[in-house]
Write a structure and sequence with these properties.
Elements: H1 3-17, H2 19-30, H3 35-52, H4 58-71, H5 85-96, H6 100-111, H7 114-130, H8 135-155, H9 159-165
Helix pairs in contact: 1-2, 2-3, 2-4, 3-4, 5-6, 5-9, 6-7, 6-8, 7-8, 8-9
Length: 166
C-alpha cells in the first residue's frame, strides 16, 4: 500500500469515527499490522471494545481488537447463553436415575447441538435395545462427552453447573 493511500485511509477513519479509532489503527500499523486489515478489524470490533474497555489505555484496546479479530467466529461477537435451572434440575434427575445418556441427550437438545443430539439419541436407542451399556457404548459416549463439554464451555456461562448435573 502506498504512503498516500495509507494517509487517505487514516483520514477517512478520522472523519468517520474519531480520533481514538485513528490512533488505534496507527498503533496497529506501527506494530506491523496490514493497514487495510487494521482498519477493517478496528471498524468491526471498536464499538464492543469501547463499551467493555472504555477506560483502558489505547494499547490495551488495540490488543483486544487484535485478539477479537483472530478469534471471533463468523464475524460476530456473541454473549454466552445460560441454560435454565429447570432443565439443569431435570438433567440431574436423569443422572440420579442412572439415565446418563438420556441426561446428555436432553442437554444437547436444549442447547440445540443437533449433531450431538442425534448421536446421544442413537446411543440411547442402542443401549435400550441391548439392555445395558456395553464397553463400546460407554467409549462412544465418552467421545461425545468431550465434544459436549467443549461446546458447553464455549456457549454457556453456567456450563460447569450443567456439567456437574451430568
Amino acid at each position: 500500500m502506498k504512503r498516500e493511500e495509507l494517509k487517505e485511509l487514516i483520514r477517512q477513519t478520522l472523519s468517520e469515527s474519531g480520533d481514538e479509532k485513528r490512533k488505534i489503527i496507527k498503533h496497529l500499523i506501527e506494530k506491523g499490522a496490514n493497514p487495510v486489515d487494521a482498519k477493517k478489524d478496528v471498524d468491526k470490533h471498536y464499538a464492543h471494545v469501547k463499551k467493555k474497555y472504555g477506560n483502558a489505555p489505547l494499547s490495551k484496546k488495540a490488543e483486544v481488537i487484535v485478539t477479537l479479530a483472530g478469534t471471533a467466529s463468523e464475524g460476530t461477537i456473541t454473549e454466552k447463553k445460560t441454560m435454565d435451572t429447570k432443565t439443569i434440575v431435570k438433567v440431574a434427575k436423569y443422572t440420579d436415575q442412572n439415565q446418563h445418556t438420556l441426561a446428555r441427550f436432553l442437554v444437547a437438545k436444549e442447547a440445540r447441538f443437533s449433531k450431538l443430539e442425534k448421536s446421544y439419541q442413537l446411543l440411547y436407542n442402542l443401549h435400550e435395545h441391548i439392555g445395558h451399556a456395553t464397553q463400546g457404548l460407554t467409549t462412544l459416549r465418552y467421545e461425545f462427552d468431550k465434544e459436549l463439554k467443549s461446546l458447553l464451555k464455549k456457549n454457556y456461562s453456567n456450563w460447569l453447573e450443567i456439567w456437574n448435573g451430568l
